[in-house]
Each structure stands twice: as structure tokens, then as C-alpha cells.
Amino acid sequence: MSNTALKKIEDNGERLSEPVEKRELALVSPEAKVPERKSEAKLGFRGYLRLASISRVIATLSLYLYLDQYDVHVKHQKKRLGARRAAAYELTRAAVFGEWLHRLRFSILDAFLRVLRRFVLGGAKTQLENQERQAVWLKDKLIELGPTFIKIGQSMGTRADLLPLPFVKELGTLVDQVPPFPNATAHAIIERELGRKISEVYSEFDAEPVAAASLGQVYRARLHSGEEVAVKVQRPNLEATIKNDIFILKRVAAFAERFEQLNENADWAGMLREFDQTIHEEMDYVAEGRNADRFRENFKNWANIRVPEIYWDATTAKVLTMDFIRGTKVTDLEEQERKNISPAKVNRLLIKTYLKQLLEDGFFHADPHPGNLLVQDDGRLTFFDFGMVGRIDSELQSKMIDAFFHVVSKDAAGIAQDLINLDFLKPGTPHSTIKPVVERMFEFHFNLKLKDVNFKELTYDLADVMYDYPFRLPSNFTYIMRALMTLEGIGIITDPEFNFFETAKPYAKEFMLKREGRDFRKLFVDKLMGRDEGGKIDWNRTWKLAKMAFKTVLNTGQ
Hints:
Layout: H1 3-11, H2 20-23, E1 25-27, H3 45-68, H4 70-89, H5 93-121, H6 127-145, H7 147-156, H8 165-172, H9 183-194, H10 198-201, E2 202-205, E3 211-212, E4 216-223, E5 228-234, H11 238-256, H12 268-282, H13 285-298, E6 305-306, E7 319-323, E8 328-329, H14 333-338, H15 343-361, E9 363-365, E10 373-375, E11 381-383, E12 389-392, H16 394-408, H17 412-421, H18 431-446, H19 455-468, H20 478-494, H21 500-528, H22 539-557
Parallel strand pairs: 1-12, 6-11
Antiparallel strand pairs: 2-4, 3-4, 4-5, 5-7, 8-10, 9-12, 10-11
Helix pairs in contact: 3-6, 3-11, 4-5, 6-7, 6-8, 11-12, 15-20, 15-21, 16-17, 16-21, 17-18, 21-22
């Protein structure tokens, strides 16, 4: 690395010299708390105007999604009204009259909301058209609000479990259809960051960007040494913009916390902390380069996986120079077929890499949208953009492996306990009342063929349970679930018969056997040598693993 580049990296502050492990997205066990980033921003007149604009978009979208799922809400409310009425009959006439008034108010509000829903969503014939129109409105508003909200929109565009399909499709265009910023500004940033003129660093440099994203844009160039490279440049004034937006969003989240119903099924404050952490990571291109190097090292023995090389003498916190790699998007089926590439094989390879990342490495690419994945002509899969990565500590990883073990072995009681262990329930929730409900739900799904089960169906089936019981998505699972939902979305596009569980099953078994076998060998040897500290061998679990291993060997040999 040149002295100039080193000086530029050092000039960006002590934060760049911290170990990578400290600055990755730490997806740890629920007991470990992620420190909240302190913000010194203050709302002036313009800040309040921006707060109003942001609140309007959030309120409009919330109303729209509420109306879209209105029948589910009404079903839950009617169930509660029935219970209240039955309880009132056990009391006094005044209580019964009070409940009658309550039901009357509910009926009036219900009639109003149904009229409003028809006006906003339209009837059965116009609902899809209205959804498409609303989706375009939301995308345009997010672009208008800037980088922070474009990034949030990209995340929302992977959540087919939460948003109607037209929203998912429209927000998916935010991956590669973001308006670029002026080339002159980009050139000035590059020269200021590298301390040299563009012509001194690159022998070629394209006049227009090849891609524009939420946080930066990319140019094709060539180094004087001959390598063809991609140069990523960060958007101007990005840090100040995001800092102010995070401050405003914290105000909105604090307001939402006053209303218990808004926080029953999601840890919004925790999710915002995770977003704050990860988006600041994404703004540091030195950290991104180190993440890419680490990911490449983890897959060094996988010939079918490629990660661009980072050119450190032309990289700083705001400029990243790496290999320019051509390829086909994982979702471009026609081009893959033209090149005799099997989309189904590519998808299976993608799933296998993520199981390795989650269950073996404890370090994963947290933003696997189609813009960050290319298939080369020889079938190799290339990963890009390592600004958003996740790190899973050994405790959480062990709990996740337990959950995979119970899913594969169709152990409904084990899955119920896994949800408790992974903090999917509010603190203080009586486990005795929850476990039977979860067991019944998963036993129903286990009676289906594995290929007939998917994340989205499970999410819809959970809707009633989520209302009646205090389930919530823990913040340390935000990006794991986002990655898994994105992978399932890619899988459905690339292979209509795709099912995540069915595809993941053999690979999950392989990684579970590898991990559990290693742990068992250590525990067994420790016991033989008298080194154990009271640990017990779970012989029932060991017998299940042995059977699983035997079946796996038989299937491999066929």
C-alpha cells in the first residue's frame, strides 16, 4: 500500500484502526447488548420539516398496510369482543351495557374503515392497480427522502412476507435504478481521497457510472498496471445526512413506543440500532474491503465462489477500487439459459454458501439482493458489496444449529423451545402457555410435504398466533431473516419448484453433522481423559445424529 493511501486511511480517524471484529454487525445472543450510537444532532426548522415529511410517509404506508391486512385485525378484535362480552355477563347489567356501547363504537369504526379501505385499496377489480400505484408513490418518496430511506426501501423490497407483491417488485428496482449524482462531484471526491489526479491513478476512467446505488456509484476504470477495475465512490455529505435521519427516526421510534400495540411483535428500537450500526459500517469502504478479504478467505477452497480483489493503494474510507467482474444477474434466467447455465444449480449453490456462512463461519453477507450477486460464464458465483455483514457469536450459532436440528428431525416441541431460547418471546412470557400452541402449529406443517412449506406461508399462519401471544422478531435476527427471505425470493424466481427448506435440508444436515460431530468428539474425549467439568453427553441426541449420518451416507452413495 502506498504511503499516500496509508496516510488517507489514517486521516479518517482512529475508528479505521479498530479490529474488524469490533466493527462488524454483531449478531449476538439476546443477553449481549449492542451499545447505542450517540447522536448530537438537533432539530432546527428544516429538521422539523423533514420530520414532518418522514412521518407522513411512514403514517401513509402504515395505514395502507393496516387496511391491506384489515380482515386479520378484525378477526382478532371480534375474538376479544366475544371474550369481553362473556365476562361482562358474569358481572352486572352495567357491565353488559358498557360492552354494548363498546361494540357499537367498534361497529361504527369498522364501517368507516371498510369505506376507507375501499377508497384507498379499491375493490377486487381495482386492488392490484391501486397497489401498483401506491408502490410507485412509495418508491418515489423514498428516493426523494434520500440515501437513508433508499436503503430502508431496499430492505423492504425483500419482505414479501410483509408487503403486497406490487410493493416488493417496485421497491426491488431501488437496487440498481437510483439516480446518480454529478460526475464532477464524484471525480472531486476521488482526487481528494486518493490525494492524486484521476489520470495518475487510472489509465482509463469511464465518463459515466455503470451503476448508482443508495450510498454511492460505480465507474469502470483501468489501472496503469493493466487491471480492469470498478471504482466505487461515496455520495457527497452522506455521513451528515444519515446522522440527521437516524436522529429523526429515533424520535419517531420513541413516539411509537408510547403505543404498546405498535411494539408487540417487533423490537423497533432494536432494529433501528441495528440499522444505525450497519449503515455506518457500509459508509466505511476500508471496512468493506476487509470484509471482502475475510469472506474470500472463508471460501478459498470453493472453486465455484469468487470475491473481487481489493486494490488497497487506491482505496480509502470513501473510495473503493476492486476487480471489475462481468457476469449475469442471478435472476436473469434467459441470459443464464443462453449461456447453458442452470439457474437451479446456481440457486442451490447460493443456499449452500449461506448455510456455511450461518452455521459454520459465523460471518455472513447480510445484503444478498440480485444486484450483489453475479453468475460468470463458467458458472462461478460472485459476491459483491460487503458493507453489510453479520457476525454470529458461538452461543447464538449453537442455538441456531439446535433449531435446524429440530426442523430436520420434525421435533415440534424442540422448535417451541428454540423460539424461547432465541428470544422470540417477550421477557416474562409463561412458556407453559406458548409451547403447546407452537407445537400444534408446527405439527400441522410437518404433516405436509417439506416442499409445500415456505417462509411466507409460515408467516401468514403465525398471524393469529402473533396477535394472541407475545411473539416478536428479536433485533439480532433482523438481518438473518432479511437474508433468508431474500434468498427465498431469489429461489422462487430462479426455480418455480423451489422450496427453501427442501433445498437447504441436505446441506443443513451436512453442516450440523460436521459441527455436532466436532463438539461431540471433544466432549467424549474430555470425559475419557477426565477433563470434563460436569458436562453430560446427550445420548438421545447422539443417536439421532448417528441415524442422520447413516441416512446421509446412504443417500450420497445412491
